[in-house]
Amino acid sequence: MDLLAHLEAYVAAVDEASFSRAAERLGIAQPLLSRRIKTLEAHFEGQLFDRSRRQVATTELGVLLLPYARDVLDRAQRLRHVAGSARRSAACGVGVPADCGPAALARVIRAGVEHGTTLGMRELPPAEREAGLADSSLAYALVRVPPEHAPLRVPLGLASAPSEAPDGARPASPEDRPRTRRRTVHLEDLRPRRVSGAGHRRPAAVPILTTVEDHVGYAQDRLRRAVARAGLPEATVRPAGPMATALAETLAGQATLLCAEPFARQHGARWAALGDASLHRGYDLRAAHRGRGPAKVPQWLCTLLATAVGAVPDEPTAAVARAVGEDVRSRLAAHG
């Protein structure tokens, strides 16, 4: 028995003093209302209404139980209201890369409040973001896809130690440094120069550290192939340890870090974009499935998250696709 539905029929019949008007008020057929009241009477083992009169009259038992029935219905209504408020106020998890800037994510959170949505930012590796969408623990997530198929493309480059300041001078902060034309670097540019003369050994290439955000199958394969084409040792590329350690090595000039420009600038490192666009990051903002299909992704959320990860305005897909098979022989020949 649906106790709440039966109590609603009972209270409505008392209020309206008519089974037909009570049924109309509840939007059900009168026979169904009559059955519910009879079932309730059988449950309480007593008559709730005196049916011997022309007008519906409440029995002594009916009068005794009425305030308790109203209390149960009121509590059920409050329970539904609290549950609805909790659903509306629950934070929607958003899976993002770990190298997004805090200020950019703060703008996303504030925009969510303005649109009536509480967003919770969750920094997760690529595989965990996809898993979160699959099990609906995340409402939205930035999913890694090849850049030539990506709605959001993030140029990757190499972060390196900042230029040294003159003796006694304080190094300029990222905000104080003048904006210069963005440099482009090719992996073959990292090949150590031959040193002539006896007893001189060719220096080793500076290591390239990669973070967990780029430990994606297709991205790793492309980077390995690019390193081989550039004539660099396979060991040139190695996974970074904790982010703080990787940054320390980079800022100390012991390594370069594969990352997006906003992350490098945020930590005061120099940054040069990789010329090979096939090595850049690609993202697609996706929503978890709701019912038969995925929910719609709000455009404002996509725009703000694109800024947070450092995405650039889209360029023709064909141009990026050609970079996947880019011929670098001419550049290698130029480097000997």
From TrEMBL:
Pfam families: HTH_1 (PF00126). Residues 158-184 are annotated as: Disordered. SUPFAM superfamilies: Winged helix' DNA-binding domain. The keyword Chloroplast does not apply. Keywords: DNA-binding, Transcription, Transcription regulation. PROSITE patterns: HTH_LYSR. InterPro entries: LysR_HTH_N (IPR000847), WH-like_DNA-bd_sf (IPR036388), WH_DNA-bd_sf (IPR036390). Residues 1-59 form the HTH lysR-type domain. Gene3D superfamilies: Winged helix-like DNA-binding domain superfamily/Winged helix DNA-binding domain (1.10.10.10). The keyword DNA-binding applies. Belongs to the LysR transcriptional regulatory family. This is LysR family transcriptional regulator.
